[in-house]
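Running co-folding for CU-O-CU linkage.
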Amino acid sequence: QIGPVSDLVISNEVISPDGFSRSAVLAGKTFPGPVIRGKKGDRFQLNVINSLKDDTMERGTTIHWHGIFQRGTSWADGAASVTQCPITPDNSFLYEFSVPEQAGTFWYHSHLSTQYCDGLRGAFIVDDPLDPHKSLYDVDDESTIITLADWWHETAHKVFEGALLASATLINGKGRYTGGPPVSLSVINVKHSLRYRFRIIAMACETAFTFAIDGHTLTVIEADGENTDPLVVDSLEIFAGQRYSVIMTANRPVGNYWIRANPDARGYPGFDGGRNLAILRYAGAPVAEPKTTFVSKSPLKEVDLHAANDPSAPGNPWPGGADVNLNLAHTFDVQKSEYQINGYAFHPPTAPVLLQILSGAQRAEDLLPQGSVYFLPPNKVIEISLPGTSVRLGGPHPFHLHGHSFSVVRSGDSTEYNFLDPVRRDTVNTGLEGGNATIRFVTDNAGPWFLHCHVDWHLELGLAVVFAEDIPSISKTKPPQSWNDLCPKYDNFLSNRK
Ligand code: C2O
């Protein structure tokens, strides 16, 4: 665990989290990377040092602090081709930003091509000294973070070209694969009668998981850094990029219980041989694998989640009742092998969108990539409809918006609208055909913000747009000189490489 003022060294290391050795791209030499932990109001100064050497994977890097608003510091958002050029090998870059208004469960990951699939992912926790849910739990420390990740035995470039299925699910960096050795699984230790706040983070490249702890109910209190009214469930589906905090009371007989992360789709193997499992172990229980079973009776439905204190969605309480109403329909073009949103695939521009604006581009139509940049006026209510697609087209897609959280006025899996007290979050499952996830937010944060599918292969295939929010204010932002140096250095790196 590291604090808000820290170095983060990015390097290639050979690891075998599931018993299979491969070279990976890691932060702090571990998978997942070190937990970054601070508190609400902190100023974070994270110095990212690029020591990457392995040419079979990306050697540039950027880091995105997923869910952090970056108010006034869009240059520190870490999205390659949108807010910065990559950091070159043997170079470093200081990300400096404050977190004055947010608390909860976030994460960080590379935002260059599909690099985070090669390992660069970690938890980012912001504690709230005035947490309104504090009286509901006794323990919330490093031991209560549960990260779910999909893992491959090939580099992300090869996985992408070959559309390879994940080999293993890593829970807190440990897991097993089909035909692999029975390596030890992650253990979460608890003491009887205590109430735990577990922070579940889906740092997946692709996979959605159904998460459960045998024999225990989970009370959801947070979704993606936004507090919710407490909601009791026995399992929850969590998509790539999403997070939940749940409260679990250790009130069952002392023993071992399975923690399950069942990959939802695409024929990934289930729980045989200890796959997709970790262990909840009570103090006093034998060191043994559990024998518990589980059938879900009350899974989480997003539509049942309500923002804490029930704030209503901004804008008028009917579909299309915002100041700006956008329908972003996605399709797949088989010929070009790319996803398109309203007819355009996102092809990363060489000059990041932020640099284009700072260099004088003032109108959305002057910004590259053409057709993928939308201008949003300041201080307006925006409604975005994201119609779902079929499983064949890779749905349901989890869409993540940078720079904001939003009210989910219609869930991807529901036909109802809720303008009264919808959950707020930053990554939403758009559901399947016939679904229409609909979100609202207010443009109170100038910046070029990515909206994209968090299945990293889909982002690479163009499933993204950029919102240029309040261009006049963006053009007044002043990134540090080190930011201005990134693009020339990266251009140099690329041309020396040829
Ligand atoms: Cu978690 Cu655009 O990122």
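Result summary
The domain at 5-129 is CATH 2.60.40.420 (Immunoglobulin-like).
The chain is about 10% helix and 35% strand.
Job closed.
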